[in-house]
Amino acid sequence: MKFFVDTADTEAIRELADGGLVDGVTTNPSLVARTGRDFFEVIREICTITSGPVSAEVAATDAETMLAEGRRLAEIASNIAVKVPLTMDGLKACRSLADDGIMVNVTLCFSPSQAILAAKAGAAFVSPFVGRLDDISTDGMTLIEDIVQIYDNYDAFRTEVLVASIRHPRHIVDAAKIGADVCTVPPDVLRKIARHPLTDKGLEAFIADWAKTGQSIL
Ligand code: E4P
Q1: Does residue 218 lie in a domain region?
Q2: With CB atoms 3.0 to 4.6 Å apart as the test, which of 18, 123, 127, 139 could cross-link to 106 if both were Cys?
Q3: What's the pLDDT tens digit per position in 120-177?
Q4: Distance 58 CA to ligand 1 centre (A)
Q5: Domain membership of residue 74 as a residue range
Q6: CA 87 to CA 118: how far, in whole Å?
Q7: Which residues are known to be catalytic?
Q8: Which residues, in sequence order, are CB contacts of 159 under 8 Å at separation 6+?
Q9: 50 in ligand 1 pocket by Cβ < 6 Å?
């Protein structure tokens, strides 16, 4: 399973990339707005931190403008994945961008039938939002199960399932058990995965016992 970081905070991306945990990055307009920085400057900087796919989202809602914006975004770096919404216009733009050899991440996916359309439109990634479904009392992980099963039935569907709107480590474990290709994870959730109280307790005891030996390895 690949880990993308779900943020436009370049410091957080740098820190996690140094730990070898970053296979790519996803951003969206809300995450970019949170930085208060220039959109192009932020995306350009992220593309220097990771060589993995970096999702940058179009702002337009009509296919023609989305296509023009997508082509402009793709000029930033070769690892840009243009993010388009899962609408008829978004799918149309996706088809054209994919035909140009540009990676496309079709975002805001909330149903298996929408995911089928993304695959047919040649998306490199589809982003089902598990957390936002959980928020309205619908099991987000069932959507991941459905999409993975459907895509597995067809060799022609090359679209990777990118689990988005992740809120806690359990989402990642469940997505991994299902066999989803990618999880895009907020930095604080990625940091939480490493933590376990028994790890801390065990380490404390080992440090204390090692000190009693009076030895050193180096
Ligand atoms: C990523 O591509 C999505 O934009 C993101 O995961 C959405 O997460 P949220 O539902 O926590 O805003």
Answers
A1: no
A2: 123
A3: 999 999 999 999 999 999 999 999 999 999 999 999 999 999 999 999 999 999 999 9
A4: 15
A5: 2-213
A6: 10
A7: 83
A8: 106, 115, 118, 119, 122, 123, 124, 125, 126, 151
A9: no
% of the chain exceeding 90 in pLDDT: 97
Ligand 1 atom with the smallest distance to the CA of 105 is: 2
CB of 131 closer than 6 angstroms to any ligand 1 atom: yes
Name the band, by pLDDT with cuts 50, 70 and 90, for residue 52. Answer: very high
Residue nearest to atom 12 of ligand 1 (CA): 165
Pseudo-torsion of CA 179, 111, 166, 91, nearest 10°? 90
In angstroms, rounded to a whole number, what is the distance separating the alpha carbons of residues 88 and 107? 12
CA 129 to centroid of ligand 1, rounded, Å: 7
Ligand 1, atom 6, residue with closest C-alpha = 165
Total domains in the fold of the chain: 1
- Structural tokens at position 187: 């930095």
Maximum separation of any 2 CA atoms in the chain, in Å: 71
Name the residue with the closest Cα to ligand 1, atom 11.
Answer: 165
- Does the CB atom of residue 132 touch ligand 1 within 6 A? yes
Instruction: Give the nearest ligand 1 atom to 55 CA.
Output: 2
How many whole angstroms separate alpha carbon 94 and alpha carbon 92? 5
Give domain status of residue 134, yes or no: yes
Q: pLDDT-based confidence at 28, cuts 50/70/90?
A: very high
Domain annotation covers residue 54: yes
User: Residue 122 belongs to a domain with what CATH number?
Assistant: 3.20.20.70
**The pair of three-digit structure tokens given for residue 217, joined into one six-digit string:** 């390895």
Residue 50 belongs to a domain: yes
